[in-house]
Amino acid sequence: MDDDVDNKSLDVVQFQLTTLPPGQVAGDNYPVALKGNRQSLTVILSIDDNLFQALSHKLQTGATISVHPVLISHTFRDLSGEGSSRIDQARSFQLAINVEAVSGLKQYYRKLRSHQFEKTKSTSSQAVKVAVLDKVLRPLNAMEELVRILERSNSLQQERKTDNAGFLSLCSELTSRMCAVKVTSCYKGLKETRCP
């Protein structure tokens, strides 16, 4: 499971943002520095001063952003010419990856939800708290429903031993709602890789 190992190794990567060095103009190549080793790697990105000023105080003072990697797999390749045992093996491998992916997405969703509720607790006024909770609960409930649908989708795929073409669309919708970065790759990354 090389994909799984590569995906898991991103857990040790953190990003730190700094301003551009003096004399460097926005639009030039932005410098990137690496600090650490295989057990703990920090990627230091220098960004334009205008972008840096828009960051939270915490990020401006050196806090890092952690990576929460999730690997999702789906093949659109026709497996009908393959032997039935090979098809079953490919589907069960893909399903195992996706079950773990949904578990990772669910774990991240829970962290996001608890973070949003912590932010509302810091508000002193009860009327403001109710307004903020109302604003936060709708998107969180929609994300929770998407997680449930993904879990159900995996179990249906396992029961029926069928392809699950809607799985990628659902995962894409969930990651968009979480404001996550998605990297989509096809044909082993040789044909097209994009990061929307």
Poorly predicted tracts of residues: 1-5
Average pLDDT figure = 76
How many strand segments? 6
**Helical content class:** 40-55%
Order of helices and strands: HEEEHHEHHHEE
Counting structural domains, the number is 2
Oligomer: single chain
Structural class: alpha+beta
Shape: flat
Continuous helix count: 6
The N- and C-terminal alpha carbons lie at a distance of 26 Å
Kindly report the spatial arrangement of strands forming the biggest sheet.
Answer: 2-3-1-4
The major pleated sheet works out as: 4 strands, mixed
Estimated radius of gyration: 21 Å
Kindly estimate the percentage of residues that lie in beta strands according to DSSP: 5-15%
Would you kindly provide a written description of the structure presented here, covering whatever features stand out?
The protein has 196 residues and is an alpha+beta fold. The chain folds into 2 domains: 2-66, no CATH class; 84-194, no CATH class. Helices cover 51% and strands 15% of the residues. The protein has helices at residues 2-8, 49-53, 57-60, 84-121, 126-160, 167-177; strands spanning 13-19, 32-37, 40-47, 65-66, 184-186, 192-194. A 4-stranded mixed beta sheet has the order 2-3-1-4. The chain is flat. It starts with a helix and ends with a strand.
Could you write a compact summary of the structure shown?
The chain is α+β, with helices and mostly antiparallel strands. Helices cover 51% and strands 15% of the residues. It has 6 helices and 6 strands; from the N terminus they run H-E-E-E-H-H-E-H-H-H-E-E.
